[in-house]
Design brief:
Elements (H helix, E strand, L loop, with lengths): L1 H13 L6 E6 L10 E2 L14 H4 L13 E4 L3 E6 L8 E9 L9 E9 L1 E2 L2 E2 H6 L4 E5 L7 E11 L10 E12 L7 E2 L2 E3 L33 E2 L14 H5 L11 H4 L8 H13 L4 H4 L2 H13 L18 E2 L4 E3 L8 E2 L5 E5 L2 E4 L1
Parallel strand pairs: 3-11, 15-17
Antiparallel strand pairs: 1-4, 2-11, 4-9, 5-6, 5-10, 6-13, 7-8, 10-11, 12-14, 16-19, 18-19
Helix pairs in contact: 6-8
The chain binds 2-acetamido-2-deoxy-beta-D-glucopyranose (5 copies).
């Protein structure tokens, strides 16, 4: 027993940089720690994007037993909580379904993305979550068909993305029984897992991740956030009938700057986030020699995001000039977003979360 305990604590120390999705809340109510979630055999990442493990983690097409399926309604707020993570990267959520029985579903097949959080206010999703007890919230879309679903939560760690196969996918799937108003197949686009991710996709293999890469341009794998045709008739609380009102960036969005560097003099601001992002990366064994070139890039992007507050309000909806109209499936709002806030004809700006609105 004693040796087992020693071994266990050694293992915990060795893998403490790894993480699992361990709890969820539906409208602030939780079924409990690990309830409703298919816990993988370990907290190690999946790195082979062509493996069936990329759907719902290790085990691939094997369906676990004894996992509860949690009730929810379309439009509900889902909160996920992960283990602590110092790995820079995005978080995304996808649904698989509707199916008759989520507990008997592998997750190998068609998914559609319902949420993503990449890089905002000079922080990756894992850091933004870290400031919120490792939680992240999003809404189940309106227009879902009633039925059971797998909810796939993915945290992608990019600290080794400079090599092919270096990106680490942390994945957890929950089982949900959703009551909705849509019809099956109304949400899209959908993607196949495995299949949709390729080892050399530009958001998975990033040769210059420590050497010139601009995180503000990053968008997570899996394509655009899906829309559901059935959403409408006023049932979608987040759909922007008025793109302007849902996407206007607050005029004093310096408040969105993380408190760690909001409180220091402006002249030193760019230096601070570099350490928070890079120290985490470097301590994960990343390439220290090339990492030294990263501060300039990060500092630049952060400095520009900080100085952006004057331009943030300068994009009124009506102005038709280029740069103020976002194309379909592109970003049109979110905290610290300074780009276009209007959408091209035929699409409207829809809030996905505090940090990301998209033309759909
Ligand atoms: C953070 O999450 C843990 C686990 O859910 C919880 O026990 C703890 O109370 C939370 N802390 C705060 C400050 O909310
Ligand atoms: C800035 O934002 C805060 C909270 O978001 C709000 O209370 C305050 O009135 C805002 N100030 C200005 C000048 O907009
Ligand atoms: C470290 O960076 C150098 C220069 O960019 C590169 O040649 C080398 O392959 C990198 N090493 C690792 C382990 O990524
Ligand atoms: C950002 O806005 C605040 C308040 O409006 C202002 O004091 C500050 O100088 C602005 N910063 C920049 C870089 O424009
Ligand atoms: C906007 O940009 C597109 C392509 O870059 C160009 O074809 C179009 O003429 C531009 N429109 C205006 C109003 O400048």
């Amino acid at each position: 027993m004693f040796s087992k305990a020693v071994l266990a604590s050694t293992l915990i120390a060795a893998v403490s940089a790894h993480q699992n999705f361990h709890q969820l809340w539906i409208n602030d109510e939780t079924p409990g720690y690990q309830a409703g979630i298919r816990m993988p055999p370990s907290n190690s990442p999946v790195v082979d994007v062509t493996s069936e493990d990329i759907a719902c983690n290790v085990g691939g097409s094997k369906v676990p037993s004894g996992v509860d399926t949690i009730a929810a309604n379309e439009g509900d707020t889902v909160k996920v909580q992960w283990d602590q993570s110092g790995h820079p990267g995005p978080i995304t959520h996808m649904l698989f379904g509707p199916v008759d029985d989520a507990s008997a579903t592998t997750g190998v097949g068609s998914w559609f993305k319902i949420d993503e959080l990449n890089y905002a206010d000079g922080k990756w999703a894992n850091e933004i979550m870290g400031a919120d007890n490792m939680t992240h919230e999003f809404k189940l879309p309106a227009g879902l068909a009633s039925g059971e679903y797998l909810l796939r939560s993915e945290m992608l760690a990019l600290h080794s993305a400079q090599t092919v196969g270096g990106a680490q996918f942390y994945i957890g799937c929950a089982q949900l029984k959703i009551t909705g108003t849509g019809s099956a197949g109304s949400c899209g686009p959908s993607i196949e897992l495995p299949g949709a991710y390729k080892a050399e996709d530009e958001n998975i293999y990033i040769p210059d991740v420590y050497n010139g890469f601009d995180p503000t341009t990053y968008s997570a794998p899996g394509g655009p956030v899906a829309t559901c045709d059935g959403a409408g008739a006023g049932t979608a609380p987040v759909s922007g009938s008025s793109p302007a009102s849902s996407s206007v960036v607050p005029s004093n969005n310096t408040l969105a700057v993380p408190s760690t560097f909001a409180s220091v003099p402006a002249s030193t601001v760019p230096a601070i986030p570099v350490s928070s992002t890079l120290v985490a990366s470097i301590s994960q064994g990343a390439n220290a020699s090339s990492a030294v070139s990263a501060p300039t890039t990060l500092a630049t992007s952060i400095a520009s995001s900080i100085s952006s507050n004057s331009t943030a309000v300068a994009a009124p909806t009506g102005s038709a000039g280029n740069g103020s109209i976002a194309n379909k499936y592109h970003q049109c709002g979110g905290k610290s977003w300074t780009g276009a806030t209007s959408c091209e004809t035929g699409s409207t700006c829809k809030v996905q979360n505090d940090y990301y609105s998209q033309c759909v």
